[in-house]
Amino acid sequence: MSAYIFLGPELGKKQDAFDSVKKKFKGAEESVFHANETSVNTITDALQNMSLFSDKRIVIVKDAENIKKKDEVELLVSCIKELDENTLLILLSDEIKLASGIDDAVPKANRQVFYELFEREKNEWVRNFFKREGYIINEDGISAILELVENNTEALKRECSRLINFLPKDKPVSPQDVDKWISHNREESAFTLFSRIASGDISKSLESTAVMLAAKESAQGILAALAWCFRKLGDYLALLETSDNPDSFELKKIGLSSPKARDDYSAAAGRYCMDDVETCLALTGEYDILLRSPAAALENILMDRYIIAVIGAASRNCQ
After folding, report:
1. Is there a single domain that holds both residue 214 and residue 106?
2. Fewest CB within 10 A of the end CB: N or C in the chain?
3. CATH number of the domain to which 42 belongs
4. pLDDT tens profile 300-309
5. 318 and 227, same domain (yes or no)
6. What is the arrangement of strands in the sheet containing 29-34, beginning at the earlier edge strand?
7. Quick one: 176 and 215 in the same domain?
8. pLDDT value at position 194?
9. Under 8 Å CB-to-CB from 134, ≥6 apart: which residues?
10. What was the pLDDT predicted at 319?
11. Number of H helices, E strands in the chain
């Protein structure tokens, strides 16, 4: 059967699997749909109609977790069962499961879930990337990169490839290099968003969120990364309780090697106390649930409310 399901937040490995399958349909006409914007009727029409320009057709459906109404699932499943050999359907999602009927309609061999990398896997991935390119990088440089880049190999490859354009090969990559060339010359991400939240800039935070959503970033993925940032802020606040001026070694132990990351968490600590962090984590969990509900059609509004809520959760006087 020419139907595949690729799920999970690990975008790099998912993209590799996606590319591998597409190679089998070289020269095919390609149609891309977002399930949160396109009706299932439109998608199934594309699957059933003959291509005008090629004898093969690829239909790619992103955000496929949004196909969950019973009639939509049944329509898509019936279409999957009747796919001809010249039509390839690829369903993509950052979630780890789709509606059960859809999952069951696709052979197990054609379904894969790509989970986030473990910490040791991320370290090894960065080390091997720089080694292949002929650069030297030590643990501090690796830690600095991982503090500033999303937890998937697609983002790591993009940022590391950009970084080596500015580096000499005769000295190790330092946290200062990472801060200079990644932090100051990067596209919007959950980490640049956290930097704006840390400073209390509502306008810039809302703008950053809107840019990411317009670029089809997953709202759930943004929340997951921000939850990680707030947990890291909790670690930083706990460290400040034992040391007013933690040294470089103490900061590295909690994963803060990059000068920019240290500045961000220092700014956040001036606005949030430990209770505030717990409030922000609770808000993040609450909005994650809301975004998975039927109200998810109002994704931009929900994310704006979330941003305003977490910035408003900061108390000026942390007792």
Report:
1. no
2. C
3. 3.40.50.300
4. 899 999 999 9
5. yes
6. 29-34, 57-62, 87-93, 3-7, 111-113
7. no
8. 94
9. 169
10. 47
11. 15, 5
pLDDT at 31 over 80: yes
Average pLDDT over residues 150-174: 86
Show the domain range for 127.
117-186
Which pLDDT band holds residue 32 (cuts at 50, 70, 90)?
very high
**DSSP 8-state assignment for residue 26:** T
H helical segments located in the chain = 11-23, 40-48, 70-81, 100-105, 119-132, 139-148, 153-163, 175-178, 190-199, 202-214, 219-242, 248-253, 259-269, 274-291, 299-312
Domain end call among 113, 130, 154: 113
Q: Are 90 and 111 in contact (CB under 8 A)?
A: no
Same domain, yes or no, for 159 and 260?
A: no
For the domain that residue 203 is a member of, what is the CATH number? 1.20.272.10
The CA distance from 212 to 104, in Å, is 32
CATH number at residue 154: 1.10.8
pLDDT tens for each residue of 225-279: 899 899 999 999 999 988 777 777 788 778 787 777 888 999 999 999 999 999 9
Of 127, 155, 186, which residue is a domain's last? 186
| CB atoms inside a 10 Å sphere around CB 37 | 11
- Angle of helix 259-269 relative to helix 190-199, nearest 10 degrees? 40
- For a pLDDT cut of 70, what percent of the chain falls above it? 94
Whether the CB-CB separation of 94 and 220 falls below 8 Å is answered with yes
- Tell me how many domains the chain contains: 3
The reply to whether 280 and 313 lie within a common domain is yes
- Please indicate, yes or no, whether residues 154 and 55 belong to a single structural domain of this protein: no
- Please list, in sequence order, all residues whose beta carbon lies within 8 angstroms of the beta carbon of residue 79, skipping any fewer than 6 positions away: 44, 47, 48
Residue 185: its pLDDT value, please?
56
pTM of the model: 0.60
pLDDT digits (tens, 9 = 90+) for 64-83: 998 999 999 999 999 999 88
Q: Which residues pair with 170 in a beta bridge?
A: none
Residues 77 and 20 in one domain: yes
